[in-house]
Amino acid sequence: MRSATLPLLTVALLLFVIPSSAKASRRDDAGLTTLSDNSPGTWPAPNATGGNAWTDAFSSAQALVAQMTLEEKITVITGQSGRCVGNTGAVERLGVPALCLEDGPAGVRLIQGASQFPAGQAVAATWDRDLIYQRGRAMGQEFFDQGVNIALSPVTGGPLGRSPRGGRNFEGFFDDPYGTGEAAYLTVKGVQDAGVLATSKHYIGYEQETFRNSFNQLESYSVFPVNVQAPISSNIDDKALHELYLWGFAEAVRAGTAYVMCSYNEVNQTHSCANAYTQNNILKGELNFQGGIMSDWGGVWGDAEFINGGLDISMPGVGIGGVLGAWWGDGLIPYVLDGTVAESRVDDAVIRLLTPWIFSGQSANPPPAVTWNVDQIFYPTEDAYWHDVRKIETMALIRQIGEDSATLLKNVDGVLPLGTPGVIAIIGSDAGSNELSALNGEGNAQFPRWNINGTLTLGGGSGWATPPYVVTPYEAINYRARKMNSQAYAVFNDSDYDAISTTVQSADVAIVFVSAFTREGEDRATLYLDHDGETLIQTVAANCNNTIVVMHAGGPVLVEEWIDNPNVKAVIAAHFPGQESGDAIASVLFGDVSPSGKLPYTIGHSLDEYPPDTIVDDPVLAPQAYFSESTLIDYRWFSALSITPRFEFGYGLSYSTFLYSNIYVQSVFEADNSTIQKTNEPFEGHDGSNSLYDIIAAVTAQVTNTGGVVANEVAQLYATFPDSLGIWLRGFDKLKGLAPGETRTVTFSLRRKDLSLWSTERQLWYIPEGDIQLQVGASSTKLYLTTSWS
Ligand SMILES: *[C@@H]1O[C@H](CO)[C@@H](O)[C@H](O)[C@H]1NC(C)=O
Ligand SMILES: *[C@@H]1O[C@H](CO)[C@@H](O)[C@H](O)[C@H]1NC(C)=O
Ligand SMILES: *[C@@H]1O[C@H](CO)[C@@H](O)[C@H](O)[C@H]1NC(C)=O
Ligand SMILES: *[C@@H]1O[C@H](CO)[C@@H](O)[C@H](O)[C@H]1NC(C)=O
Ligand SMILES: *[C@@H]1O[C@H](CO)[C@@H](O)[C@H](O)[C@H]1NC(C)=O
Ligand SMILES: CC(=O)N[C@H]1CO[C@H](CO)[C@@H](O)[C@@H]1O
């Protein structure tokens, strides 16, 4: 979902500048050779069947559609104006209401009375399946209680994190398909267990913000007039499609995701929302997806070719004044009347929209009626009614995710946990509050799309959620300091070097808070800190030999300029932790909990260590991103090319230490019992009754807490396949509350798919011949134990 909160003047202007001739195909102008046949003629849209889980709801949806006129059907699948950021059309005579769609992946956006959850990337850093599920469940509950039918959440692999500079990587989970798949499954399940319908996004190959969509006068990269430039084309080979980018969507489908949102970018030079190959063949065919494909807001560029290419729901359709392209609605009717679009395709689209809604039980038990609407949010009025649905236990959950995601990167001389320092210096704007107030992050007297003032708790855009409050690091640390009779001094001005030097010289310990903001609509220019955080850290470290650095960032930060400074004694990557930021980091700093987060991405020594050219910014009419690194993104690139990063994927220290021993692998069989909707993914040895998701091997190992404090440890399993480059994460297990001296067993259940690769020649998943090396350890490079399976 784009993050537009358009002033009325801009809305009027846009309506004026998008002529109906914009319906002409852009690709013809570009004169490019097609990189594969993506046409509906080759890949007709499969009709829904309801799958194995939604049979009754499917029949009910069919019966409803049979009673609708063509106009009614098209109204239902075309976004309308309404109180939410997206609204489906109602057919009141048949009891089909307008459904309310709201952002986003870290909570109900632009609403007062909802929580600001940690970013997806932060919960990934916990590597804790329980917390990932609980976050989805608690968020889903707030969507439901806020009167939302469909949550535009979660990000399940688009972006996956191909580029470390990707502006929206923070919204998703791991820069890895398996990790993202686990989190996608659990989050979809959690959200939908709360009664809300989930939208897994953005499908597919959506890996950069730059040139993502040419309704671009709102975006920082605007080079052509509106609607002239084609969106970036992600040109992805078949192996990378299956082994990387599709994996998380397969897990979302298995979890029963109601909707999938197609993305802004093109795939192989066809708009992803019109791409019959990726939508009809792959998503609805191979993954057997039974719900509806919904466009991103502005991702539709035409009528007939989009619905024939597999799109089921046009958003925002004729809503929001039609500014993002008023496709479908009345515009679609002539194509149905002249046979360009079969009416059965329209029927199927309506059935796909209604089936998961009926299955969810919302038709009988809808979310409560509320009175907020997006107009009040974009243009707040004094009598706007806000409805607070937050629960006390959700605050504790958010705080725990913050604690358990904090990733300790460096800790020497036992500086952490802090004892009872006499004087604590707290330095940096990232330690303090938003001087413009929480509801005014951009200084424009509107509900902000993000917050760049004060401590960074979340990235910006549609992945932002208005925090009900923010516990700042200063507030939490100062409170603790008073209770233990310490003194705490703060300087929030990042460039007031004189005040900073004076303050930290008198301190026993200086905690410097730095940040790297990232948001929708813009990729990160560099991997450095904002507000010259490098100079800030060096200024503090030059004046205090007990310097601790805490970073709030939405992706990797290059640390070379200061990490080896001997006065920088400890460094924590605290990610985007949401509203409980300060309390969470204080728990870690003072040792109430031992840190147990591990990096969900790789921190290199420089940008040059990552795959090259992963953000394309050639200012041309049809920009092309060739995913030439194929499956070698993030740690897979580093492992395949034998590059040692600064901090590897999966890395994170503890206040304790662990010993790994006794790896053991055995073949087992446990029939898949977690699939809610079955996919049709082809695999070698499919006998009609077995599943790609059956557990066929189990690896165990032992982990002993060899340190002095109770701690958690995330054990990880990586596979190396014969004749294949690089390692693959294929399991993780978080041991919680290990007492000093205690030994516990970690278990990794490997499904057939986890031991498989995709064959482009045979178009199926297969288990390679020969030994598959399985390694277990504390990170993607600290692989202490090795065994093999064949
Ligand atoms: C893109 O085109 C290439 C070359 O024709 C093809 O091998 C690949 O499968 C296509 N990928 C997608 C996602 O369409
Ligand atoms: C979908 O069903 C219609 C009839 O309702 C049929 O004409 C069409 O061929 C079916 N499409 C596919 C791809 O099977
Ligand atoms: C921060 O400190 C610098 C250097 O003293 C000063 O120029 C600047 O005005 C200060 N900023 C604010 C907001 O006070
Ligand atoms: C740190 O600085 C203090 C004050 O200058 C000094 O007393 C102390 O020895 C230094 N500690 C180390 C480890 O260098
Ligand atoms: C699936 O099976 C496992 C192991 O037999 C069991 O622990 C788990 O509870 C089962 N899950 C479901 C959803 O039935
Ligand atoms: C300290 C700080 O970063 N202040 C900024 C708050 O936001 C406004 C508006 O964007 C900026 O002008 C300030 O510099």
UniProtKB/TrEMBL annotation:
The keyword Magnesium does not apply. It is an enzyme of class 3 (hydrolase). It catalyses: Hydrolysis of terminal, non-reducing beta-D-glucosyl residues with release of beta-D-glucose. Its EC number is 3.2.1.21. It is found in: Secreted. Keywords: Glycosidase, Hydrolase, Secreted, Signal. Residues 28-49 are annotated as: Disordered. Residues 713-780 form the Fibronectin type III-like domain. Coiled coil: none annotated. Pfam families: Fn3-like (PF14310), Glyco_hydro_3 (PF00933), Glyco_hydro_3_C (PF01915). InterPro entries: Cellulose_deg_GH3 (IPR050288), Fn3-like (IPR026891), GH (IPR017853), Glyco_hydro_3_C (IPR002772), Glyco_hydro_3_C_sf (IPR036881), Glyco_hydro_3_N (IPR001764), Glyco_hydro_3_N_sf (IPR036962), Ig-like_fold (IPR013783). Residues 1-24 form the signal peptide. GO terms for molecular function: hydrolase activity. Beta-glucosidases are one of a number of cellulolytic enzymes involved in the degradation of cellulosic biomass. Catalyzes the last step releasing glucose from the inhibitory cellobiose. Belongs to the glycosyl hydrolase 3 family. This is Probable beta-glucosidase G.
